[in-house]
Amino acid sequence: MLRNGQENGGCHATLRFGQANQTELFRTLLRNRSRQPGETVSELAHDTQRLLSRAYPHASVEMKETLAREFFIDAVGDSDFRWKIYQARPKTFNEAVSIAVELEAFALSEQKRGNIKRVRAVGERTGSVKEDEKLALSRKRLWSVGSNSLYVTGKLEGVRVNFLVDTGAEVTVIQTGVFRRLTTGKALRLDEVPLDLAAADGRPLTFLGRGNLLLKVGELEVEHEVLVADIDADALLGYDFLKLYNCTIDAGAGKLTIGKRQLEQLGTDVDKSVGTRVVVANTVVVPASSEKVVMARTSAQMEMSACAIVECSESFLRRRQLMVARALVDPSKGVIPLRLMNVTDRPVTLYEGTSVGQCQPVELVDSIASERAKCRTVTKGERSGAKGIIALGEHLEILAEKSCVDLSKEEADRVRQLLADNANVFARSKEDLGRTDLVKHEIDTGTAKPIRQAPRRLTIHKKAEADKELDKMLRQGVIEPSNSAWSSPVVLVKKKDGSLRYCIDYRKLNNVTEKDSYPLPRIDDSLDTLAGSKWFLTLDLASGYWQVEVAEQDRHKTAFVTNRGLFQFKVLPFGLCNAPATFERLMERF
Fold it and tell me: Domain Peptidase A2 spans what residues (predicted)?
């Protein structure tokens, strides 16, 4: 009775807590995992590791690292957030988490940041800012960037600057970066600022100093005292200037009058700071999971230099789920090329006139023309005659030494230069595989149903060898985990040196595959072409088949079953009936 009770208890425990191997359940949860509202990046990373350990309990450390990184990035947030992480190219899971945490912290700080703060004197001149906090906040809303702030174009020491006309700023202030532009090639003196200064919200400002600069607005050109500080705008035209020169602001008409002279160039931040809307010139379709260059135009004429920057708007990204590459363009040409990326699994249509983003004028900050003037082209003769030898990678040094035996100094330099120019075609190690996209292998099985075969039993010794080879292929990017309905067994074949070759028995797959009749070269014809030759060169491709990709829609057919699960080839495996024909096509492309 006790034995039966134990058995029943085991059954009840199984029903209550589930089967010991629930990997498929956890894999489904992992694939469908997404970041929840209010969930931090660290919490998501912890849960991803928890699910991964249950979904792939027998995977190697390297494989778990790769899967954790990919699943975490897929679940971390919207497409823009994921794209920023991918751009950083994290190599490990921890790197991806660190990047995501930094991006999250930056996003939170941007939300807390206000717009441009008004500058007010504190202490001797105005007393405490706190007593007028409500008025300062209301002013900030009226005159901040993003509303209809008023800008006027002027010059400081002969350099063009956009001034933000700010009645809430008691002093005229310029940005530290603008001041550095003014000091290029000449010395400008700054004195210390004796007062404590703060923004309208009480935030203290860091000042570089104060000085008298030549300021020109419209026809008025005077020396005026300005302060240099870390502010968001290029320059603030403060109340001290507006009062001293009898300036009148017509906010409704968007005009500034100095004395009796009216400035026509006064504009809002929509035209001068934020920029002009960029719209699609013609109706286009952006295919799924692809990039496309489309032509666009600005919605209005812009007064700007020949250089402007195009940026995607958040509303466009949210509605269309298309990414727009930030780029410098020349709007004066009438059309603007935009690179769009569709990261979704469906095509997206953009109709003529669709607003994509903004085009904002940019100004030259630093010129490197003087540095370029110092550079010149080095001729081949000068290069070969330079001191020392041409530096090569460690993997090419031995080849260069063997190739340069009995050669003159000039001939040896030419050989080394040839190797340096083509260094990318040589494998750096035995695990360094190249990849070509000139041809892709396709497996046409017609209407055949998937063929499923059971794994073959391996001895303990062979199982260890098989696991070692499997880890190596995962590390090289040759295979990937699979959920395919197809499966073929693994066969270990002993080579001449006694080691084992990892092979897949694709005979049943080959039986249902349409045969490729592309001809292979005859050996006797190949030998005939060598007749009369004295010098012969051989090039051995490192795992040549593995440098040819398998078409994505057919990769699942290459799936093979192991004691660690199901995997499929990303590259051309040995044993497929049409593999020689595909490889011959590649050889004849050269």
Answer: 161-175
Distance CA 89, CA 107 (A): 20
Residue type for 447, please?
Answer: T
* DSSP, residue by residue, 530-561: TTT---------TTGGGGEEEPGGGGGGG-EE
Q: For the chain, give every domain's residue range.
A: 16-112, 119-272, 276-361, 376-425, 436-587
Read off the pLDDT of residues 390-430 as tens digits, 9 standing for 90 and up.
667 677 787 888 888 888 888 888 888 888 888 777 777 77
Residue 121 has pLDDT above 50, yes or no: no
The CA-based angle 292-297-300, given to 5 degrees, is 155
Using only C-alpha atoms, the chain has a radius of gyration, in whole angstroms, of: 34
Question: Cα separations (Å) of 1 from 6, 13, 341, 387?
Answer: 9, 18, 68, 92
Find the angle CA(486)-CA(503)-CA(458) to the nearest 5 degrees: 90
Length of the chain: 590
Residue 330 has φ and ψ, to the nearest 5°, of -115, 95
Question: Any long-range contacts for 100-107 (C-beta under 8 Å, 24+ apart)?
Answer: 100/41, 100/45, 100/72, 100/73, 100/76, 101/41, 101/42, 104/40, 104/41
The architecture in CATH of the region 436-587 reads: Roll (3.10)
Digit-coded pLDDT (tens) for 23-61: 777 788 888 888 887 788 878 888 888 888 888 888 888
The pLDDT tens digits of the residues spanning 274-309 come to: 456 788 888 888 888 888 888 888 765 555 455 788
Please report the sign of the dihedral spanned by the C-alpha atoms of residue 296, residue 299, residue 302, residue 304: negative
Q: Looking at domain 276-361, which CATH architecture does it have?
A: Distorted Sandwich (2.70)
